[in-house]
Amino acid sequence: MAEVLAGFTVWAWRMKRKLKKAKATSEETAKNPEELGISVDALEKLEKWGLVKRTKDGRYYIQCKDKKHC
Question: Domain total for the chain?
């Protein structure tokens, strides 16, 4: 079970890193799934877990609160 959790953690970290590299760190700079190279299913799962946010027009971004870790 620990291996599965570790795998999900690494996967989520890699997906968040893709959003950061694409500079999708606010609602204004949000990107669509094609621009990010991430499937919609994966982004929906990350949204469900509270790791990314979705705009009304279907773009995704990672919420950056302190501007230090973005």
Answer: 1
Mention every residue, 6+ apart, whose C-beta is less than 8 A from residue 64: 25, 26, 70
Q: Domain range for residue 41? A: 2-61
Question: How far is it, in rounded angstroms, from Cα 70 to Cα 57?
Answer: 23
**pLDDT tens track of the chain, all 70 residues?**
778 788 889 999 999 999 999 999 999 999 999 999 999 999 999 999 999 999 999 999 998 776 666 6
**Residue 33 placed within a domain:** yes
Cβ neighbours of residue 26 closer than 8 Å, sequence gap 6 or more? 61, 63, 64
